[in-house]
Design a protein that fits this description.
The complex is a heterodimer of chains A (about 425) and B (about 260). Chain A is α/β, with parallel strands linked by helices. Chain A contains 9 helices and 16 strands. Chain A is elongated. The two termini of chain A are about 55 Å apart. Chain B has 2 domains: about 55 residues; about 190 residues, Jelly Rolls (Sandwich), CATH 2.60.120. With about 260 residues, chain B is an alpha+beta fold. Classes of the chains: A alpha/beta (about 425), B alpha+beta (about 260). The interface between A and B is large, with 115 and 105 residues. Chain B: Keywords: Signal. Chain B: This is Secreted protein. Chain B: It comes from Streptomyces edwardsiae.
């Protein structure tokens, strides 16, 4: 079968080469999501009293942050919608309850007016508490709407002072809203506790944590994060897997997200026509403190619960994500079983063996990302070697010896025939 | 001799057909335009920065980040991933690791190379290597052999002290491949390379600058998979066998007449 297909493919190569110039440049860049809206970035700046400390290149943390913001505002790409939110900027008192509500939008998320934004930043003076959790919640609300990429950049010099609301859990809840939001954190001259808290916030949403000791580091990093937001990224589609195949959502090719709790099963179904290949990959992210040994299992199962193929991954140690995948080409249909349906329903089931110590919240579940591609099936393989061709000195030797022996025999035969003919 | 002529004509035809197949490349959208190698790294599979083979990608990052790059690898190549991390001046002992995943996000084993390495306290840098298995054009669906398509590299600190979290590091990544030639030419081929999101890419409305999970292709496009030097070996073997056959024939048949035979019998 392939023997027929291949020469045709080879002949088509010429045609393809001729048409490639016309067809491909646009096709290669064409992507997955539909028209994306503008990327949004919300800068969240800590304006608490501790920002007065003069330990960044001899100037105060506040002054360094202001200067960095000015430079970032100048360098922000046109397409990015930028906003600024402050925390602890307005309430100077000692009432914890009041201080923990102190977060305000300094500049609304939207098309950027650089002068206006800079003027707003200039008015800031170090004042109050450090309500990181509430500020993150509000910052996420600011970014609501649109399907572009969303990013919060949190700059803080002290850990959250508004327990019991754990900013880490707040970050996880924000991520679980499924609006594709990433939180990056920067710690100004951080101590170990702040490092832990800020990196916990970052890891909960797949963001990054950076510690900053100098003003230029701050500028470079924030600039980089804003630029990164401007890069086009495929936005996944939120879906919700069921706990059995018959209730599972039917998926087509694309990128999907879901949540999966510890030890939970997530079922999805995909319709696979004969002669097509299903490619599925899944990654489960460890967005909280998990025990150091874990695994992920992805199985493709028929509707009658027979396993077709599985992908499994296990891991150990510090990780952000554990992933695996599988491939299932459904053979071409033979003509004689034409009464069977042309497409098969393949159930995909994802399980994980992540576990956490007591006290770690189990809801919302771990972020799960599922990629599904249904493509044409592969050309089968009839031999180990390409077209069954040979290669190497042993092959040459064998052919030469065989040829030589055949020649000898043929020569001897013709001599014998000549002799026989002569005798008669 | 006729067989030889037919064979050489066939070889010539094959060569001609191979040329357009090799030229069948589409302009691949590169991460940083045409200005050169990328200077940034992604932070997840979805946002991995695309790197071409032979390019040196750099990225400034923080200790504790998970850095992702992706590169295309074609059949018959054996990619080597090489990463260097320049560490800050003072730090505690840190263990760094590179992991390579294929287009289905399955972890790919390193044949050799220091995939994980621990840098002692205050060591200036750490170097990591991973030599993958040879990429095959086809494998059974139940195997996890490397197949042509996108490969992901993840670089991260595996063990580190809290005090080092977030410290600035400079990273460098370079992917190179060794061509394994016809020895690795297997039968069969995938219909599409193992690139995530490829099913949603073809045929839809053609919009420029659209985000894709992986868009980079090898410099000369994906090989069609039917050409290998096995054709030359096999053809050469055929020619040599024919020559050996002629030689053997002449040896036993002698001058054409047995000795002592009358000239006109």
């Amino acid at each position: 079968m392939i023997r027929k297909k291949r020469p045709v493919a080879g002949a088509c190569a010429l045609l393809a080469a001729l048409t490639a110039g016309l067809a491909f440049p646009a096709g290669a860049a064409a992507g997955e999501p539909t028209g994306q809206s503008a990327p949004k970035v919300n800068l969240v700046l800590d304006v608490s009293g501790s920002m007065r400390a003069k330990d960044i290149d001899g100037q105060s943390r506040m002054a360094a942050a202001k200067q960095a913001f000015n430079e970032v505002l100048d360098a922000t790409p046109e397409e990015v919608e930028l906003g600024i939110r402050t925390l602890g900027a307005n309430y100077p008192g000692d009432d914890r309850k009041e201080g923990c509500k102190d977060t305000a939008q300094l500049y609304p998320v939207g098309p950027l007016d650089r002068t206006e934004a800079k003027t707003a930043v200039a008015t800031l003076a170090p004042t109050g508490w450090t309500p990181i959790g509430p500020a993150l919640l509000k910052a996420a609300d600011d970014l609501e709407g649109g399907d572009g990429s969303k990013r919060i950049v949190l700059i803080s010099d002290g850990e959250d002072t508004c327990a019991p609301l754990d900013p880490c859990e707040v970050a996880r809840e924000i991520a679980a809203r499924g609006i594709g939001l990433t939180i990056d954190t920067l710690g100004l001259v951080p101590n170990a506790k702040l490092s832990r808290q800020l990196s916990c916030i970052a890891e909960a949403t797949g963001g990054t944590y950076t510690s900053v000791e100098h003003q230029d580091e701050l500028t470079d990093r924030v600039n980089e994060l804003v630029d990164r937001a401007a890069e086009p990224v495929v936005t996944p589609v939120a879906t919700q897997g069921a706990d059995s195949c018959d209730k599972a959502p039917a998926l087509e090719s694309g990128l999907f997200t879901d949540r999966e709790e510890f030890g939970q099963q997530r079922w999805y179904r995909v319709e696979l026509p004969a002669g097509q290949e299903l490619r599925a990959s899944v990654s489960v992210a460890a967005d909280r403190a998990v025990r150091p040994d874990y695994g992920v299992l992805l199985r493709a199962v028929t509707v009658h619960d027979r396993e077709i193929v599985r992908g499994e991954a296990t891991g150990n140690g510090r990780t952000d994500v554990l992933s695996t995948g599988l491939r299932y080409p459904k053979p071409e249909r033979d003509d004689d079983d034409s009464d069977k349906p042309a497409a098969e329903v393949v159930c995909l089931v994802v399980t994980n063996s992540f576990s956490a110590d007591a006290g770690v919240k189990t809801t919302p579940g771990l972020p799960l990302e599922l990629t599904i591609d249904v493509v044409d099936g592969p050309d089968g393989s009839g031999d180990v070697a390409s077209f069954g061709l040979g290669r190497g000195w042993w092959l040459l030797g064998a052919l030469i010896v065989t040829g030589f022996v055949a020649g000898l025999l043929w020569g001897w035969l013709s001599r014998w025939r000549f002799a026989v003919w002569r005798t008669n | 001799m006729r067989a030889l002529r037919v064979l050489s004509a066939a070889l010539l035809a094959l060569g001609l057909a191979a040329a357009p197949a090799a030229a069948d490349s589409s302009p691949s959208p590169s991460e940083s335009g045409d200005t050169g190698a990328p200077t940034r790294a992604g932070t997840s599979f979805r946002t991995a920065t695309e790197v071409e083979q032979g390019q040196t990608a750099t990225a400034r990052a923080s200790t504790g980040d998970y850095l992702y790059w992706s590169f295309p690898a074609d059949a018959g190549l054996r990619p080597t991933v090489h990463a260097t991390v320049k560490l800050p001046e003072s730090h505690a002992a840190e263990t760094w690791q590179i992991d390579v995943y294929d287009g289905l996000r399955r972890r790919q084993a390193c044949q050799y190379g220091a995939q994980t390495r621990t840098a002692g306290a205050n060591a200036p840098s750490v170097e990591l290597d991973c030599v993958l298995r040879t990429v095959r054009a086809w494998s059974e669906p139940w195997a996890n052999d490397p197949l042509p398509g996108t490969y992901y590299v993840r670089l991260t600190a595996l063990r580190l002290s809290t005090a080092d979290l977030g410290q600035a590091v400079e990273t460098e990544l370079r992917v190179e491949s060794k061509d394994m030639g016809g020895a690795a030419a297997v039968d069969g081929a995938l219909s599409e390379p193992l690139m995530p999101g490829i099913a949603t890419r073809a045929g839809k409305d053609e919009e420029e600058d659209r985000a894709v999970l992986a868009g980079l292709e090898p410099e000369d496009g994906w090989t069609s998979g039917w050409w290998s030097d096995r054709w030359i070996w096999t053809a050469a073997g055929g020619v040599l066998a024919a020559l050996a056959g002629v030689a053997g024939y002449r040896l036993t048949r002698g001058s054409g007449r047995p000795p002592g035979a009358p000239p006109h019998a």
